[in-house]
Fold this protein.
Amino acid sequence: MSLTQRILIAMGLGLAIGAVLQWAALPEGHFVNTFLLHGVIDGGGRIFVTLLKMLVVPLVFVSLVCGAASLGDTGSVGRLGGKTIGLYLLTTSVAVSMAMLIALTTDPGLGGDSIADAAATSTFEPKTVPSVKETLINIVPGNPIAAMADGQMLQVILFALLFGLALSKAGASGVTLRSFFADLNDVMMRLITMIIALTPIGVFCLMTKLGATLGLAEIGKVVMYFVTIVLALSLHAALVYPLLLKSLTGLNPLIFLSKMREALLVALSTSSSGATLPVTLRTVEHKLGVQNNVASFAVPLGATVNMDGTAIMQGVATIFIAQFYGIDLGLSALLTVVLTATLASIGTAAVPGVGLITLTLVLDQVGLPVEGIALIIGVDRLLDMLRTAVNVTGDATVATIVASSEGQLDQAVFNAKEADSAPQPASS
Ligand code: ASP
């Protein structure tokens, strides 16, 4: 059985068992709850996510040092960075604009009583979000070791990039270190392959927990909001990305999506593009054929700042809250939403549920009540899964497009039939 099949079975089985547990509603102190659900299964899921997170800092650092070291030779860092960041910004603003247009057609906030009911049963505590200026200053690591220890990804990315560039210019003194990092990169890729082999077990645990705790009744209260976001996410993933990919690279989007499946399943199960990063990076390099010097920069940067799915949610949520409170957003307010949702999604950490917190930034900017978030908090768990999958697809799409435009894409690898779960040879 292929790895994807095993993951899918684990997902279905986990959800089914979880749903049965929810239906059975065993008392809290029951053996099944204490030992299995809150014990082995909860622990198993958390260990899996932590194992993935364990890889992120060393992987990004090592891989990006290798990438930047070889980029430094060609002098193409600026162009590559410009293209990548430009495409990330473009896709995110397209995503939020499209989502708002759809929301203005479906009017998700005009649901009346049922929405008010959703507000009555939940609360939202606004948190303060750092300003854009603070965010920019925070990209520079005062202490790179502290940045790594705290998992400050933008700081780690900047340091690795500068370190790799210095390495490329170090001449003879850099030779040993370059080959050391290249070897280390191979070892990290091996480690990812080992941890990916555990995905079916991890996904089973995460899905069982989800099935046992998810309340679907909440969706009924804000059904149009839910449907609008699912529609916008689907259009973005199944139309915008494939069109971009096809028109800018000529590559077959179906092959792209099929090769992304393991990364997408991990994104769905973990709701974290950060935790999915090792799988995304491995997929982009080994299955889509993007060379390390592009992938090592574009994928970690994308996982940290490129959140099209999150921006879609924020665009729809803003329209929804404005409509519910009967506040009319004029054209300039709508344009402000496009801008701030793009920035807010950049500032969203790649972990579960943060998109809802940075939504406060967008609401504040156009004077909408932040308490409105209480209306949608109940359905965010499921939407978070879906938008994370879109976030991850966006990172891989942009990495592939940039690699193709830079002549750094191995088309033979992209088009090759894959041996699903077999360990891939490590890249150089
Ligand atoms: N969970 C999302 C991610 O990791 C972020 C969010 O929208 O909350 O990509």
Summary: The domain at 3-415 is CATH 1.10.3860.10 (Proton glutamate symport protein). The pocket of aspartic acid is lined by residues 271-274, 307, 310, 348, 350-355, 384, 387-388, 391 (CB under 6 Å).
